Amino acid sequence: MMQQNETKQQYTPNADAGVIQLRLSTYELLEDIKDILQGQAPSIKQNEDGSQQIVKIKISDPLVNDKGFQMIYGLVRSCINNAVVQGNNNERMFEYQVYDFEKTLAMLLTCNYEEWGLNPEDRNVLQLSLTTLVINFLSRTIGNKERESYGVLERASSTNTVQAKGIFGGNQ
After folding, report:
1. β-strands 4-10, 40-46: how paired?
2. Are 69 and 38 in contact (CB under 8 A)?
3. Side-chain half-sphere of 55: how many Cα atoms within 13 Å?
4. CA geometry: angle at 38 spanning 36 and 71, to 5°?
5. pLDDT (tens digit, 9 = 90+) per residue, 66-122?
6. How far is Cα of residue 49 from the mean position of the Cα atoms in its chain?
7. What is the value of pTM for the model shown?
8. Maximum distance among all alpha carbons in the chain?
């Protein structure tokens, strides 16, 4: 009796797309940065109908005024976005990007802290916090590891089934 081996792959694009979208999303990280700059934090509010929703509550005065917020947030978004995380950097390029971000942020905070209403004592903490976030985010681009991990995700979500079929099409 002859047997024929067939390989079937089950591909679930919606699951793969969801995982990749989650890995590419910068929304929560950028929201955290907004909250820090604006002196707010997320909180859960109970609605009259019993449902819950996330609201922002004020926990302190904003670190900077609107102009400072726009400038700092714009600089951070130039480093933390969906396109950047898909980059393929070597160590040298990564170090240059971090150096450039850190130098630019330091210059902006030093030159504009009065105009932006930034307390001088908060400059170093803000510089360190934002630089650390950017370093952690940009490190994902070193050696193309982020994009390579998408292939691993795709292979992990696919299943291979090998069936042995007889000459009459029945399973053996």
Report:
1. unpaired
2. yes
3. 10
4. 90
5. 999 999 999 999 999 887 777 778 899 999 999 999 999 999 999 999 999 999 999
6. 33
7. 0.70
8. 87
